[in-house]
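dumping these here so i dont lose them again. two proteins, back to back, each one seq then C-alpha cells. dont judge the mess
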Amino acid sequence: MNKPQLKPEQHKKYFRRSLDLLPGEVAVFDYSRLTILYFALIGLDILDGLDSLTDDRKKDIVEWVYRLQLVPNEYCSVHKCGFMGSTTVIHLKNHPGSEKYCESNVAMTYMALCILITLGDNLSRVNKSAVLQGVASLQKSDGSFKSNYEHGESDLRFVYCSLAICNILNDSSSINVNNAIKFISNCLNYDGAFGQNPGTESHGGSTYCAIASLSLINKLNHVLDKNKSRILERWAVNRQTNGGFQGRPNKDPDTCYSFWLGATLSIMGSLNRINKERNRDFVLNNANLLTGGFSKNMDSIPDPMHTCLSLCGLSLIGEENLNPINPALNITVRAANYLKQIQGDFTLPNQNKFKTDTDC
C-alpha cells in the first residue's frame, strides 16, 4: 500500500485562497477574522511559502493588523488596550453606543503579535506598555486571566495567551507570575493532565496551554516533578488512537491534537514515545487532495485551523519540506529567532506617540 504524501503546493494555494476569499457561512466569524489570518500565515511559514505573497501584500496585512490596535485615549481606557479581532467595530464607530464593544481580546493580541513577527515587523508600533497593562488588567485574584475586560471568561487558554504576550514583549513585571503558576497547578488532575479550570476534565488543549505556559516562564519543573511528569507523559501518549490523537479519553482522533499533544510531549522531551509513522499517516489521510487543506477527520471539510495545526504536528515529527516550529509559541523557529533579535531593541517608556486611527 502506498504511503500518503504531503502536497505542499496544494496547501500553499489553500492558505492563499483563505486570505483572498472565504465561503459565505464563515461571515459569522468576522469578529475574529484575525484568527483566520494567523492560521493562514503560520501555515504558509511552515510550508516555506511566505515568499508567494508580494511585499505589498505583506505590508497591507501588517497595516491591517495595526488598525486593530487599541491605545489609551478618551474612548478607550488602558484596561481595554491590545488588539481586537477584526475591523467590524471600527466600521461601526459612528453608531451610538458602539464604543462599549471597542476592547481588545487577549487571544487576538497574542495572534496579532505572532502575525507581525512572522511577517518581519519589528513591533516598533506596538504600544507595549499599554498592551502589558491591558494584559495585567485581565488577571483575576486566583491567578487566571480573562479573555477580555468586560465580562470575559477565564481559563488556561487565556493564561497561555497572556504569558505568551509577556514572553514576546520580554516583560512580565506587570502581572503576578506566582499567582498564574498557582492557578496552573490547581488545574492539574489526578490523571496527570490539566483541565481548563480547577476541577474540570483533563483535555489535550488545556494540557498544552499549561505546559507551554510553564515553559515560557521557565517554571515547568516547579509544577511537575519527575513522577508527575511521568504520569502526564503516559496520559498524553495514551491519547494516540488509530494513529491520530484524541483530545480526551473515549473521543475520536482529530488532526489538531497532533499539535496540541505533540507539542506538549515535545516541550517535555518525550515526543519519541509516540508512533510517529502512524500519526503521520493519520494526518496526511485527512488532507483534501482536490482543494488542499486538512480537515479534523474524514467526515469533515478542511478549515484553516486544522490545516495549520496538522502541518504543525507534521513539522514536530520531522516531516520533510516543512520548517521547524517553536512548540511553546507556535510560530516557526525562523520567526522565533527573529523575535530574539528584535527583543533587545524593546523599550517601555510612554508610547502613546504610537497611537493609531482606531478611535471608537
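---- next one ----
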Amino acid sequence: MASEPVSVVFKLYCLSVMTLVAATYTVALRYTRTVSSVLYFSTTAVCITEVIKLFLSLGMLTKETGSLGRLKSSLVENVIRSPVELLKLSVPSLVYAVQNNMAFIALSNLDAAVYQVTYQLKIPCTALCTVLMLNRSLSRLQWFSVFMLCGGVTLVQWTPVEATKVQVEQNQFMGFMAIAVAVLCSGFAGVYFEKVLKSSDTSLWVRNIQMYLSGIVVTLIGVFLSDGAKVMEKGFFYGYTPWVWFVVMMASVGGLYTSVVVKYTDNIMKGFSAAAAIVLSTVASVTLFGLKITATFSAGALLVCVSIYLYGLPKQDTSKVAKADPGKDAKTKLITV
C-alpha cells in the first residue's frame, strides 16, 4: 500500500510528538521509581497500560468501521470466531509484557539518559531478526552503523555516570541486564508483529485488539505470580500518584502513536527523533537527577546518534548504473579526448 501524501508540517508534528513522548515517558518513569517513598507495583502499571491500549484501539476501529454494527461484526469475526489468530498474537503479547516489565527494572537502576542510549541496541537486534525472519538484507552502511551503535553503547556503559540527586539504592549490572532482555524482546516482537500484519489484509487496529486482549491476560498472570500476595494485601492501585498515571497514559498513547509515525514518516525522521529523545533525556537527567556527564558518555551518545542517522539512510539503487547507454559513454569519451 502506497503511503498517503502528507505535508512537511504534519511530518514535523509527528516527529515532535514522537520525540517528546519517548523522552518524557523515560524521564517520568525514572522519576516515579526513584523519588517516591511509597513504590507502586510495576506489574499492575503494565497491565493497566494494556487495558487502556485496548480501549483506544476499540475507539480507532470504531472510527475505521464507521458504525457500531460494523464494529460488532468485525469483533465477532476476528476475535470470537478466530481463536487461532488470538493464539498467534499471544506470542508478541507475552514478549512485550516481559519487555515492559524490564523497562521498569532498568529505569529503577539506571539513569534515564543512560537507558535511552543503551535501549537503542534494539536497532541491531531488530535488524538481525529482520534478516532471519523476513529474509531481508542490510546494506554495508547499515551493518557499519550497527557496529558503530554497539561501540557507542559500550562507551556509555564503560564508566558508569552518577546521579547525585537520586538517593535510592541502584544496581547498574541489573539495570543493564534488564535492558538487554528488553531489546531482545523488542526486536523479536516487533518483527514478529510486522510479519503477522503483512500475512493478511486484516486491519492494524483489529490486530492490536487481538494482541492487547492476550496482553491483558498475560500481564494479569504476571501480577499474580510476581506481586499477588502484596496486591491482595495493599490493593491493585497501591502507591499510584498522578505521576504514575501520567506514565501509564504516556506508555499507552506512545505505543499506539508509533503506528501513525511509521505510516507517515521515514527511517531518517525516526532516527532524528531517537537522537533528539536522547538529548532531551540527558538534559532532563542533568536537571532533575543531577546527572554528571562524563567524556565517555558524551562520546558514546554521539556515536549512537550518528549511527541511528546512518542506519536510516535509504539504500542506494545501483540497478540503473549497470544499464548505461553505450553510445552515450562513447560520446563522453570522445568529448573527453
